[in-house]
Amino acid sequence: MIYDVLIIGAGCTGVMTARLLSTKKCSVAVVEAGCDVAMGATCANSAIIHAGYDAKPGTLKAKLNVQGNKLMKVLAKQLDVPLKECGSHVVGFSEEDMKHLRELYDRGVANGVPDMRIIGQEELRRMEPNISPDAVGSLWAPSAGITCPYGLTIAAADNAVTNGVHFYFNFKVIGASRAGDVYYISNGTDTIAARYIVNCAGVNSAHVAGLLGENDFPITIIPRRGEYIVLDKVCGKMANATLFVCPSERGKGILVSPTVDGNLLIGPNAYPIEEADDRSTTAPGLDEITTGAHLLMPNVNTRMAITSFAGVRATPNIYDFYLKNSEQLPNVVHAVGVESPGFASSPATAEYLVGLLSDAGLELEDRDDYIPTRRADGNHKQFHNMTEEEKAEICRTNPAYGRIVCRCETVTEGDIIDAIHGPIPATTIDMIKKRLRAGMGRCQGGFCSPRVADLIARETKKALDTVTKCGGGSWLVEKRKGEN
Amino acid sequence: MHKKLIVIGGGPAGLAAACAAVKRGLSPDDVLVLERDSEPGGILNQCIHAGFGLHRFGEELSGPEYAGRYVQMTREAGIPIMTNCMVLGLTNDRQVTFVSPELGYVTASADAVILAMGCRERTRGALNIPGTRPAGVYTAGCAQRYINIEGFMPGNRVVILGSGDIGLIMARRMTLEGAKVLTVCELMPYSGGLARNIVQCLDDFGIPLRLSHTVTEIHGKERVTGVTIAKVDEANGRRPIPGTEEYIECDTLLLSVGLIPENELTTGAGISLDRMTNGAAVNQFRETEADGIYACGNVLHVHDLVDFVSEEADIAGTHAAAKILGETEKTVKSLEVATGFGVRYTVPERIDITETAESVRVFFRVTDVYKKVQLVIETESGEVIVKKAKSAVAPGEMESLEIPADKIAALAASEDKKITVYLRELGGNGK
User: Fold this and answer.
1) Positions of chain A with pLDDT under 50
2) What is the ipTM of this complex?
3) Does A410 lie at the interface with B, CB-CB under 8 angstroms?
4) I need a labelling partner for B101 at 20 to 30 A (CA). Which of A51, A105, A430, B248 fits?
């Protein structure tokens, strides 16, 4: 078949675009090099829906961030994904900082950020009792929020699949050809045909532009790695809002933030790296984050760490997002250099990209049979998000919900079976983890990962030694010696 | 639902506590054991090696055999064990909320609750080991489950970090199953495991133990391809010493870096924890600060031998039953059990002396390896009431001292508010 639109990359930008297109009368495919959606920067970032005062007025970043902030809240409600409007402080430590915060305030006003205020030391302390005594004030932006970026992206992808979007995983684009008005995108073994192409390939987006046939593509990506530490839920209430440090020579912008799941997140640093997929953490990096977090909150105790991770940003050699119709190739739209606030902007970026497709000639007519939820029969709430009554009821109707598999995060067998057979079948340990949080708690899967692997094997009718952590060569177990 | 006694956890602690409660006079129908797994027995079910029960049964049993004895005793006593039951919440006034496929979502009340949830393993994240996040990094217990329960091998070329008992046992187990265990690294200058396990699990198989070493980086994108290890500086907070790094090619890293009592339910009930044990603070009957809520086994403090878990569970079960039956004596005085030189923690943390003063055994762990010491309990007024000489002590082996009934009676009559457990170095080679 020839799709109307093929999207390269299933990060938040690609998925939000696919979801938006699925509300229209057109056929859509998404190809993704990884085995799941949200495998790159969407999976590893600060999980913040930025208010939008950072970007220079007039830039796409500024416009889409502020719009995306509003749209994200609507989307989270529609897909029943937890989102908390906790607000954010940019914390100042000197008069110099406060001057800078007033500039940020003015920028926010110009960008259309609502309800911001500059607040003094006393009020800041009242709002954030654990803040450093050296903090003298902050820029308070109540419209900032927190959510789970991959959770929301997965929900949007489920919604897209429910409305007919096709996802092709483990599909790493290596080349493209064109015959007439049809592009043929290849991974070396398979080819997918489409009339319009949207390049949302994240850190690889400039490279993909070249593969599509762009000569002298104007944008290059400098992958920049950021490391984070996640602290136990007992630390989750130390911060009420996301706390940024006022950018200065003192700090590189390590933030302290509650997460929507109740943990405390600290990080990131920012260093350019050679390989775009190098997501390793480093000892000096983790030390740097700890020191940075202590600037904002001296009593953050990294002995309460439950895990650390690193994400890679697709930093372009220009300040702004590069969202444009190709100048050389017809019917190709590029979303390149979408770094922070790429997630917060993504629902608005999707609208912008769909607009570019329309400019290129794609006819877009609303469907009257669009399903707004994750599945045709609703959003499938997870056991631990249910009310007492709902819990009692689902245990009665489906006993698998009475069997807890992940103790730390209260994930049931029913939840896991549901995810394994979901719109995008979750068939690896990490896919289950990202959807349900099984293995994301204190014991980090020590108890539940063998049981989750068992369920995947059982439900997909495969042997346990074929189950992987995250696809490819990430095997978990082998047969014992001498057994076949 | 109402029960006189609800025991949370059907491992060796929970089963022994339930049996002790019935032995003390509770009707088995008034007791309910809630077990989260599909079988009772707890983590012992995957510990198929021998070495359990030497103290308790005077013979060497495997984990499943030891658990089997208690399962049988519990069943013979007629005590119901509900499996696949996960307790989700506990309140200070003993309301227990649990779910199970058979019973659904249930809230039950009880006159007494015994916490016996056991412990979990510390993870890579808690150590913050830098590097990539590939498959092949397992806690030792997780790997043990894959081999002994699932019947699959979690890896072929293995480095083990941490020389706790599970790590040592798994070094042997992996070797017996045909894997190559390359080395066991231990951050401390001594092993955290039992001396007998060092000999039987490492020395007998020629597996090198590297003391004062840690893993400084994990390599590999999809599966572990290697780890970097380094010597640590004892004098500088055990930070890796630059220049001592060594790359070891392997596909698996097992972690045996400590156990943490699983006290989420305990803290959820508003019971405060002892910062050193990570378990509830208890009196000699293993009763927590919450009236009628007891704790025993690894949820209270991590034991090295299951035999001592059962012994502790006996105490908790017996007293919980006596309390339910209204047969306990009034407390005449509470004494704090304090830690002094060389002692990391004690259990119990307080002694509630009753009208008839009975002897009390105080369990404790030392802070470091010491040679030629005296274990001492001293009163506030400076009287040494118990002492015992030892040629060597180590944090990996639990110690205990018994305070005789007459000394307890004397304490009841005194002005003293606390007693202190400490080590006295007897000179010679010292530490």
Assistant:
1) none
2) 0.92
3) yes
4) A430
